[in-house]
Amino acid sequence: MANDSDSKRTLWSRASEMAEKAPPERNRYVDFLRALSILAVVIGHWLVAAPYMQDGAVVGGHLLGIIPWTQWLTWGFQVMPLFFLVGGFSNGMSWAATQRKGGHYADWFGSRVQRLINPVLPLFLIWTLFAAFGTALGVERGIVKMAAQLALVPVWFLSVYLMVSALVPLTWNLWQRFGFGSFWGFVAGAIAVDVLSIHFDVPYINFANFLFVWLGVHQLGYAWGAGRIRNPWVWAVFGTIALEMLVYFGPYPVAMIGVPGSELSNSMPPTLALFALGVAQAGLALALEKAGRRMLDNMALWTATVLLNGMIMTVYLWHLTAFVFVMVAAWLLGGIGLHSAPGSGAWWLTRPIWFALYIAMLLPLIALFARFEAARGMPEREAPVPHWRLVTGLILTCAGLAFTAAISIASPEGVTGVRLWVVALPFVGAALIGFGPVRDFSKRVSGS
User: Fold this and answer.
1) Judging by beta carbons within 10 Å of its beta carbon (0-12, 13-18, 19+), is residue 349 exposed, middle or buried?
2) What is the DSSP string of 38-50?
3) What is the pLDDT of residues 55-78, one digit of tens each?
4) Whether 233 contacts 283, CB under 8 Å
5) 320-347: string of b/e by CB count within 10 Å (b at 16+)?
6) What is the per-residue pLDDT for 278?
């Protein structure tokens, strides 16, 4: 059981202790960018989702579709490239250290799956119960499905990031052998995919850019860790110019995320335009690195960064659940606050109030579920997990997360109203990779 005195310490005091113990050689800016990127995603999602009342019913408005000029804001708020940049830096350092120590890939990758999947378990449990009991209580299945799908949209990222992480030994070897040639190889792949998809209408080939685009940005993380990006402003300018040309002269929309009614999305799957944005963001981030590292010498800011990184997946996974809960409460109260048209003066003026409500709802969710994010080592084994289990587990885990974001765990048919096979896939896959999430969940609930 946890020590009583330890449980009484504040989150800030614990984060402060961790911040002070950080080795001096640690690049604090990496942690800062990770926290910044997740915060930008949260704020962007809360801003873009713009439900409102119309004829007595709630309409799920989308700000980018209602007010076209706001699509330009996605050039700043679509910061998933930064997360993959940071991932490349961290994965490269970690994998190199594992190789030096003679560690096994199975344990290295299994620990990453554990840190990513553990926080998902309570989220899936809550929304599975909501879907099942909501259906049993007679709530319209369309509403149940819409709420569950909106709340669980963030898990798509985990599916892609796990795939990218699984390929680290391969991409790291490519970097060691070819350097920036490996990056340009992924650029060439992304170009080829977009040409085949957009100009020749080859079906489904565009999904290959989930790998080409994000692996390409991930390679820049390797370059950062190796100190090979010596002129970051050049990368920032080059990426920005390429992005502007692709948008103005090419087929790509301005918005870097999907917009209702748009024939082409730059994010689902990612396109060359999003790749260019990633290059621009990477260049800008690295150009500001020296100033950022000086800024993080301030212990208060560094402690805040450590605190947020300790709950970063919880914040990311639960922020839309908090949004949905607030919207449901507003609807139950007769649509209070939902009568202003999105984009109107009254709508913009009330954004701070709504954001305060979302934060107020998110904080208790963090307090309840951040414990699942605590890193734990993989169980000791006499031999590494067999490759067939790693591959099968990865496929099942990523498929479950992808299906959750694409079709929802809530089902419009069946007795339970839940696609139990979708809920089960990630956890069966994670167990094959090498840890038992159900066992870990029971331990967390019991506090032991």
Assistant:
1) exposed
2) HHHHHHHHHHHB-
3) 767 777 788 888 889 999 999 999
4) yes
5) bbbbbbbbeebbeeebebbebebeeeeb
6) 96
